[in-house]
Design brief:
Elements (H helix, E strand, L loop, with lengths): L1 H26 L4 H10 L7 H9 L7 H13 L14 H36 L8 H10 L2 H15 L20 H10 L1 H27 L2 H8 L4 H13 L1 H12 L6 H6 L5 H10 L3 H29 L8
Helix pairs in contact: 1-15, 2-3, 5-9, 5-12, 5-15, 6-9, 7-9, 9-11, 10-11, 12-15, 14-15
Subcellular location: Cell membrane; Membrane
Family: Belongs to the binding-protein-dependent transport system permease family.
Organism: Dactylosporangium siamense
Length: about 325
Amino acid sequence: MHLVRKLAQYLVALWVALTLNFALPRLLPGDPVDAVLSKLQQQGPVDPESRHALEVLFGNTGGPWWQQYLDYLAGIAHGDLGTSVTYFPTPVTTVISESLPWTLVLVGMVTVLTFVLGTALGTIAGWRRGTWIDSLVPATTVLQSIPYFWVALIFLYVFGVTLGWFPLGGGYDSNEFVPELSFAFIGSAAYYAILPALTILVSAIGGWLLGMRNMMVAVRSEDYVVAAEAKGLRPLRVMTMYAARNAVLPSVAGFAISLGFVVGGSLVMEQVFSYPGIGRAMLQAVSNSDYALMQGLFLVITVSVLAANLVVDVLYGLIDPRTRVHA
């Protein structure tokens, strides 16, 4: 029953998100039809019937909002997210399917790696205060306070321009490879992803380290930890199974939310490195008043965040039995 209630709550949240997703882009200034017509007019004269055809194509027929809303929900139910203005006449689903893997692989893997490293270092730093690991906290906190696009620009200048070790932008060497499942292409993509990944790692690890370190310091003096030490249990077991297991709970919640936002990409980072991910596609959609693409991207991000929160609700019950609610 508890799981059913949770699912019902998230379904209501999904409906609210879908409604906002429909309304917000339409409140922005600009008309996607005018944007496409201006591009077509640069190539030659446009027939008067072209506007009506584009309005039908983008689902903006001038009818009442409730009719557009129903058409919008029906399109989502059938997997039709419309046609992108920015990448006209490419469907939105195609744009998302081409951009999403880049973001998931880069931002997703780096987010997981940052969480694991930050939590592990924070556990040791909080358990063994005053050691060299504990001295990493101020340095990583300072790095976190610096805007990460500045870190990206510094890395790009030092390692890309000055030393020439890494490329200045892109997701892979487009002169030699095409996107495919081959070792050569994967190696090229991994090489191009080093600087963006390092930017995210350096900018984000300080938060996980500091948060876990402070929780470990607070949990260190709890009665159950003192009792475990008094029983003569091994220090490693006490640190991991008693102290860290309880101290990590806030970090798990934050990690689940961060993981949900992974599909949104790192907009500024992707723009600095010209990385072909979701964040760059979203910037292009906003710049071109691409309602359909904006709605598709927001929908993917919303579903991911809701799914991540649902997962963390389930994980909390497994990690901390006190949070379980019995019907």
